[in-house]
Write a structure and sequence with these properties.
single chain; alpha+beta; HU Protein, Chain A; 2 domains; 3-stranded antiparallel beta sheet; two-stranded antiparallel ribbon; about 20% strand; extended
Length: about 130
């Protein structure tokens, strides 16, 4: 996705850098979540909002990692832990192939509602720092 309406540049590395910058600009942090909680509950202090966010994230992590449960957040999506099978890795400089061990990974499946909101959302301009390089 190109954010500018100018002609595409000849260098693909510049285009990749713009996409990376866009991804960084869209990162949601713990503080962003706490600010959203404070916006909905104006009497809440920043410390209490951070405590609420931390408690929610710890509960999600515990359900996924310790109890092996799926976590469904209404109108957002579902997080599940699944077991990856042993697979062949790719190491271009190695003579023989690399074997990837069995491991657990978290899988996220976005809800239809979230997908629709993302598709309708207007494109945001990249961060100012990313335009300098």
């Amino acid at each position: 996705m190109c954010l500018e309406k100018s002609a595409p540049s000849s260098s693909s590395s510049q285009h990749e850098a713009a996409l990376t910058s866009e991804k960084i600009a869209r990162t949601v942090t713990r503080n962003d979540l706490a600010t959203a909680v404070m916006t909905r509950l104006p009497r809440l202090s920043r410390r209490k909002a951070l405590d609420i966010v931390d408690c929610a994230l710890e509960e999600i992590a515990e359900a996924l990692l310790q109890r092996g449960e799926c976590v469904k957040l209404h109108e957002f999506g579902t997080f599940c832990v699944r077991e990856r099978t042993v697979g062949a890795g790719h190491a271009p400089l190695a003579i023989e192939g690399v074997s990837l061990p069995r491991r657990k990974v978290v899988r996220f499946k976005a809800s239809l509602r979230l997908k629709q909101k993302v598709e309708r959302a207007p494109a945001r301009a990249p961060a100012r720092d990313s335009l300098r390089s």
